[in-house]
Amino acid sequence: xxxxxxxxxxxxxxxxxxxxxxxxxxxxxxxxxxxxxxxxxxxxxxxxxxxxxxxxxxxxxxxxxxxxxxxxxxxxxxxxxxxxxxxxxxxxxxxxxxxxxxxxxxxxxxxxxxxxxxxxxxxxxxxxxxxxxxxxxxxxxxxxxxxxxxxxxxxxxxxxxxxxxxxxxxxxxxxxxxxxxxxxxxxxxxxxxxxxxxxxxxxxxxxxxxxxxxxxxxxxxxxxxxxxxxxxxxxxxxxxxxxxxxxxxxxxxx
Length: 254
Fold this sequence. Notes:
CATH class of the largest domain: Alpha Beta
Number of strands: 11
Number of helices: 10
Distance between the termini: 45 Å
Largest sheet: 6 strands, mixed
Strand content: 15-25%
Shape: elongated
């Protein structure tokens, strides 16, 4: 069985931790480096339900996209949500590793995967890998395109701005939109597909006539789980890797 530090090293090689944003917190966050790992649960988020699932399934490690520890901790108690989760991990003997913005921007990471899911065969990587631009094989109506986004991502919670015909697309996973991306979309006539759009960016997009399809954060990043499962099973023959069935989109359908 591989040790935890061997798995972390392999992940660092494929999705370099140094590629994460300065504000981020990636890599080994909880656990003993020399711990032997037999089973890995892969999830987008570490929640109490995911921790219970990992324990019940005999997992040794939770490998998540979003870090269970994001901001600096001065104490680990149940008085904070993060402290509570970390205590649960420690008490249940579970290690935690996160691949966040380093995975988003990496080759074959979240942004590349999102573009591919939406029909890109070739694409240009923008903003150092945090966005992708591509042309659809043929022009389609905005409404049909928005529907295809919802179906491709399995996400019933989407919001849109705009109309007309769509040929050019810019994708940015998670909360990846920026003012620069909106200006680029205006210049090129592209439709932006992203998640968690703040009010000020939505207002800016409408004011500048930029089309937008907003999915949920989960909807734009769930492909993380399949890619990580494939990578780990290819590199560690004895490792059992499975995707969490408890880490679901937090939004209900209205």
